[in-house]
Every structure is written in structure tokens, then in C-alpha cells.
Amino acid sequence: MAYESETDKARRMEAEGWVLNRSGEWAKPDDPDALSSWMTREDGTCYSSYFNNAGTRCFVATAVYGDVDAPEVVALRKFRDETLSQTALGRAAVDIYYSGFGKAAARILETHLPSLMPLIRKGLDRVAKKYLQ
């Protein structure tokens, strides 16, 4: 089988009807564990904390900005897709991030180091600013 990046895998899995459960494992939506990863916005629409609308996860940015669809999170996805994915080094960094590092970093930030979020947000804001539409 040809090499498949984590981003492409996430898109493919979502297209096939899979979701990522709270344990970070792929599961079918009828799996009770998979259902627990879905959240409801104030307007009643549902989303998964592990996916953005394109089907790829945004762990650290979502933890920092608090919403998978925050304009800064969307801008950071654009940075990933338009800049990082254009070089071998950038693709390697993205693959490392999506191999588990990003999820672990977000959990550590949220549970053990929430005081670092403003500092991380400041750094992410600098990158996101360049890609905000």
C-alpha cells in the first residue's frame, strides 16, 4: 500500500463513516465509546472535538482556542495545508503531530499546564494572523 499521511487517513476514515473516540481510536458511530467524543454547540449542532469540518484533527489549536471552528484554528489548518504540506520536512512534522504527539500535547496542556495556554496562544496567533482571511 502507498504511503498515506495522517491527514489523508483522517479524511478517508471520516468519508468511510468512522469517527475518532475519546481514546483516539477509530470506531463506528454506533459504538458507545465513539458517541462520547461528540459535543453539542449552543446552537444545537453537533461536532467532534477531534475533527474539524475537513475531517482532520486539531488538538492543540482546539484546546487553546476552545472551538474546533474558531477563525484562528481554521487559519492554522490553512497554514498546515498551504505551507507545511509543501515540503518534506513540513509533511514529516505534520505526520509526527498527528501520530499522537498533538493529542498528547493537548491533553497535557488542558489537564496539567493550562497556565501555558496564553503563551502558546500568543505564538499561534502570530502564525494564524498571516492566514486569517
Quick take:
The protein is mostly helical and 133 residues long. It has helices spanning 6-15, 32-35, 59-65, 71-82, 88-111, 117-131, and strands at residues 19-20, 26-27, 38-40, 46-48.
Beta strand count: 4
Quote the average pLDDT.
Answer: 76
Structural domain count: 1
Helix amount: 40-55%
The main sheet comes to:
2 strands, antiparallel
The multimeric state of the shown protein is single chain
Pattern of helices and strands: HEEHEEHHHH
Topology:
Blueprint (H helix, E strand, L loop, with lengths): L5 H10 L3 E2 L5 E2 L4 H4 L2 E3 L5 E3 L10 H7 L5 H12 L5 H24 L5 H15 L2
Helix pairs in contact: 3-5, 3-6, 4-6
Descriptive report:
This protein has one domain. It is built from six helices and four strands; from the N terminus they run H-E-E-H-E-E-H-H-H-H. The strands form two sheets. A two-stranded antiparallel ribbon has the order 1-2. It has a two-stranded antiparallel sheet with strand order 3-4. Strand 1 and strand 2 form a beta hairpin. The longest helix is centred in the C-terminal third of the chain and has 24 residues. The radius of gyration is 15 Å and the shape is globular. The termini are far apart.
Give keywords.
4 strands, mainly alpha, 133 residues
